[in-house]
Amino acid sequence: MRAYLDHASTTPLRPAARRAMVAWLERDDVGDPGRLHAEGVTARVAVEEARERVAAALGARPREVVFTSGATESIAMACFGAAQSRGQRSVLGAIEHSAVREWANRGEVSLVAVSPRGRLDVESLAAAITGPPSAISLVHCQWGNHEVGTLQPVHDVVATVDGRALVHVDAAAAVGHVRVAFDDSGMDLLSVSGHKFGAPTGVGVLLIRRGLRLPPLLVGGDQERARRAGMENVAGLAGFAAALEAATAALDVESKSARSLTDRVIAWADAAEGVDVLGDPRDRLPHLVCLELAGVEPQPVLLGLDAAGVSVHSGSSCSSESIEPSPVLQAMGVDAERSLRISVGWSSTDDDIDRLLDALPVVLSQLRSLRRD
Fold it and tell me: Catalytic residue positions?
């Protein structure tokens, strides 16, 4: 059996999501949710039931839920809509995901400093948003960092912005792992991706605060109340809602288990030579820990662990074709080229961590020995 420890990239489909999707896919009365015939109405009911369940799990109103293909599209919708209606200037921390950074770079960007542990500096943010309200369109802040796990001061950011700009929170790494309550937060926009917590790939959500109107990114139809054109992925939405409900119901138990597993990795790292924990070891997402490995390149570490049956990740989390230095770690002022991200999920066990902690010291010892030779 392999130890899959890359849940922060994508996590296996939860059984509840699989059952919900199969139940829909096996139906014979499937239709377009935008049609008035019986099959269309059946599909429309399924979409709206999914919307209500998602809203309840995220502390939002159903009308605030816009279904998308994932967090990347949700972020694009938020950035495009804000730029079209409010202007091209955005403010963000240098540790944001590339989906945020690359959209922001299409306009004027003010980057906010972060601490060596990867936490956004709120005082620097306050300085960046000085000026008339019209000067800034959008302020971005992650709920939790996708590479080192550090939780961000999202509520302090909302209070600091205080209505002078829209606030968008990328919660892709956080939903399903920490509690998220949108309507109580004061945020304007929040992005979610299903495959990060056990929903199917290709399904996500953008929460848009009630009363906020933004030009749509995808045009060509009136789906999602004219906020996102294209026929809804009904089976995917059913799976998304089921997975989110399951993750929310089990959140306390799963997050406690995840923290216990990642705490074992941190304890090992604290005792190991040439290994440091990156990010905040306590105020962090429970399922994710990032290590700095002195004296070795990440590629052979990944290959060695893979050969031992352990799947982990290294480098920039948005790079799939090559292992590149991480902009997140560069912004933190730490070694951006020798990181190892270990992330657990709903299906992880102590056996997975046992396998990692058996294999990793051996791989590191072998690689360091080769360097000495």
Answer: 318
- CB-based contact 146:97 (threshold 8 Å): yes
pTM of the model: 0.94
Which of 141, 136, 67 is closest to 97 using CA atoms?
141
Domains 3-11+251-372 and 15-249 belong to one CATH topology: no
- pLDDT tens digits for range 291-305: 999 989 999 999 999
Instruction: Give dist(CA 362, CA 259) in Å, integer.
Output: 24
CATH number among 3.40.190.10, 3.90.1150.10, 3.40.50.11270, 3.40.1190.10, domain 3-11+251-372: 3.90.1150.10
Calculate the average pLDDT of the chain: 94
Residue 27 phi, psi (nearest 5):
-75, 150
DSSP symbols for 241-267: HHHHHHHHHTHHHHHHHHHHHHHHHHH
3-state secondary structure of 292: strand
What topology does CATH give the domain 15-249? Aspartate Aminotransferase; domain 2 (3.40.640)
Cα separation, 366 vs 363, whole angstroms: 5
**Confidence at 319, pLDDT banded by 50, 70, 90:** very low
Instruction: Read off the pLDDT of residues 320-345 as tens digits, 9 standing for 90 and up.
Output: 455 567 899 999 999 888 999 999 99
Q: 3-state DSSP call for residue 58?
A: helix
Q: How far is CA 175 from CA 78, 118, 244, 262, in A?
A: 18, 19, 8, 18
CB 296 within 8 A of CB 367: yes
Q: What CA–CA distance (Å, rounded) separates 72 from 78?
A: 10
Q: Which residue has the tokens 């030009």?
A: 215
Both tokens of 359, joined, read 């294999």
Q: Which residues pair with 112 in a beta bridge?
A: 93
Q: Which helix (H) or strand (E) holds 89?
A: strand 89-93
3-class DSSP state of 107: coil
Q: Are strands 310-311 and 3-4 parallel, antiparallel or unpaired?
A: parallel
Domains of the chain, by residue range, sit at 3-11+251-372, 15-249
Contact 217, 103 (CB under 8 A): no
Q: Are 180 and 174 in contact (CB under 8 A)?
A: yes
